[in-house]
Each structure stands twice: as structure tokens, then as C-alpha cells.
Amino acid sequence: MTDSKYMQMAIELAAKGAGCTSPNPMVGAVIVKDGRIIGTGFHEKYGQLHAERNALADCRRRGNHPEGAEIYVTLEPCCHYGKTPPCTEAIIENRLSKVIIGSRDPNPLVSGKGAAILRKAGIEVVEDFMRQECDALNPVFFHYITTGRPYVVLKYAMTMDGKIATWAGNSKWITGEAARANVHLDRHRLTGIMVGAGTVIKDDPMLTCRLEDEQKALLQGDVRNPVRIICDTRLRTPLTSKVVTTAPEIRTIIACCCTDKDQQQPYIDAGCEILTVGKDPNGHIDLNELMKKLADIKIDSILLEGGSQLNWSALKAGIVTRVQTYIAPKLFGGDKAMTPVGGSGVEFPSQAVTLEMLQIRHLGEDILIESEVKPCSQASLKK
Fold first, then answer.
1. Which residues face 274 on adjacent strands?
2. Phi then psi for 119, rounded to 5 degrees?
3. How many angstroms separate the CA atoms of 144 and 146, rounded?
4. N or C: which end of the chain has fewer CB within 10 A?
């Protein structure tokens, strides 16, 4: 096997941790000696051993000795004490001879330090090997560490004439089963899911992760429900709604501008968490303040499944990082049928939020276009 094959195996191992490592990154490791793989591992769950230590443990289980071996790891080994000891320490103690690193760790506690410690110990270090492929594993982690804010994915499904519902407000279902199944995988992968109170009042959704057996078989851990986040300026979410009545089983946060403790108490008694947030200039929840508060409680990523008004507010606030557009081969028509992004919109085409297209995928009869928001264009909406 070639170096790239070993690193590709480490990337595939890392991906098995999807949905389980947050707010840590996904990392994979492969240990090779004399052209033979003697140990593999990945970061399986937040708070548990990192990829390098799991790979070394796998060596021991197989009866192999890692001294003099090379390790391919998708992210720079950590060099500080957190929930687990530093991986640099384990690499040095086991006398590995070479470390091939994919991504650089932007965490100030690690950045460059891990590689430097290994070199100082006499270990050969190769950095940036297949970096682009390794970086693609952890856009959420990189964003969260460097900005201190959650990675927000704005997701919507629309017809080919740009409608997210009929003129009567009906939207089930625009896309087919394959597209909807992919959405539920993202609900597993991302930490939180956010909607507005209007969506809860109108649709009474559960906002849970529901996967088919074939999908579950691909996952390393159990299916994980995202933390449900409801943007509710005036605290009008019905106490009888599914998100409230199931709050004891599924973590539910209601972000509001209401400071009345008596009004908040019934939701707290029902098992919800209340985050009190200030108002933006339009009298709605200050989404930037909300993002900071969510980041403080280790919510590193959010799937935004709101209506057109919340979508516009999120874009205007500059909190959106990625856009997922599911397009169904259907036409609804209707002057009053809702479109994905409402609000006041922009006055001139030059003021538009611009996107950089990342990929296009076919999911059954539907298409998924994934794009990243160009920060400079989103920031212009605040002016």
C-alpha cells in the first residue's frame, strides 16, 4: 500500500465518529511497520481516548510492537491534558519513528506545538499530507475553534420554481425519501437543530433523528437526537407541543427575550432550558448573542430548519456558514406560495448573499446543492 492509501484508511476511520465526538474533532489513525498495518483506531466518543491511543491499544490487542513504526493521523496529535492525556506523550513512550499528519490543529493549545514536541523527541514528522482531504472531515471543529461560534447549516427543501410550501401552506412532502433520509443523517451528525416558534405552532414537529436500519448500520454509535433550539421572542411555544412534552427525554432549549420568571417557569417545570437573549434592532432575538451563548454550552453546530423569516434573519445576522438546498422536480406555482428566504430582502442584485458551490448530489429524484456563504456578502446585509 502507498502512503495515500494509509491516510485514506485513516480518513475513513475518522468518519466513523460522526455525531459522537462533538465538540472534539473526528480523527483517525493507522500504524504501519515494515509495510504492514499493525494497528488502527479513531476517536470514538467525546471524553474517550483519541485516535492515536486507540490505534496503539489495537496494536497491543493484536500482539504487535509499535516501536519503530510509522503512524498516519488525520489531525496533529494533541499535546495537552484535557479529558485524556496528550497523544504526543503516547507516541514518544511507544517509540514510534515517524508521524504523518494530515490537518493542522487550529486549537491554540495544540497548533504547531504537537509537531514540535515530536520533533524534539527525535521523531520524524511530515505535515500537511493529504491536508485538503483531512480538512474536509472537520469544518465544524475548525469553525468552532477559530470563531468561538457554532457552525450553522441553513437547510431547506424547495420545488424547481422556488417554493417551500403551496399557497395554502402545505409542505409535506416536497422531497422524496432519499433526501429526507439524508436530512436525518445530518440531524445525527450536527449537535443542534433550530427552528422558530412559528414552525412549532404551525407544524408541531418532533425535530428528532429517525434513521432506517441500513443507515444505523453505518454508524459507530447509537443514533443521537440533536439538541432542539426554539427561537421564541415572546415565549409563545405551546406547552402542549411535542418539543415541550418530550423535553425530559430530549434536550430542548427555548431562546427568548422574555425575562418574566413566572412566564418561564412552566417551561422549566416541563424540562426545557430557557436562554434569555437580548433583542436585535427589529425586536427579535439577537441571533449573534444567541450563538455566543450556545457556543458557551458546547453546541458547536446547528442545523437551521426554520421558516423563511428565520432564514432571512439568520443570513442578515451573519451566522450562516453553509447552505443546503434540496430541489425537487416539482412546480407549485402561486404568487403567495412561500419561498425559502423571506424578510425584506435586498434592494439591488449587488447586495445579494453570494455562495460558493461545494458539491451537487443526486438523492433519488431530488438534487442537493451544498454551498458555503461568502462572509463578506453576508456581512453586507447588516449595513
1. 254
2. -65, -40
3. 6
4. C
- Residue 70 has a pLDDT of 96
Look at residues 255, 258, 293 and name the one whose alpha carbon lies nearest to residue 274: 255
What local confidence, expressed as pLDDT, does residue 189 receive? Answer: 92
Instruction: Compute the distance between CA of residue 279 and CA of residue 382 in angstroms, rounded to an integer.
Output: 15
Task: Please name the residue ranges forming H helices in the chain.
Answer: 3-15, 51-62, 87-93, 113-120, 131-135, 139-147, 177-189, 197-203, 213-217, 242-245, 261-269, 287-296, 308-317, 375-379
Q: Which of 52, 70, 76, 305 is catalytic?
A: 52
CA distance 1 to 203: 53
End-to-end CA distance of the chain: 54
d(CA 244, CA 236): 12
Instruction: Please name every residue paired with 227 in a beta bridge, in sequence order, or none if there are none.
Output: 192
d(CA 79, CA 1): 29
What residue type is 49 in one-letter code? L
All 3 cell numbers of residue 211? 434513521
Answer yes or no: 52 catalytic: yes
Tell me what the mean pLDDT of segment 15-22 comes to: 91
Please, what is the angle between helix 308-317 and helix 287-296, to 10°?
A: 80
Percent residues over pLDDT 70 in the chain: 95
Q: What does R_g of the chain's alpha carbons equal in angstroms?
A: 23
- Nearest-angstrom CA–CA distance, 240 and 250: 15
Query: Vertex 208, ends 205 and 211: CA angle to 5°?
Result: 125
Strands across the sheet containing 28-33: 36-42, 28-33, 70-75, 98-103, 124-126
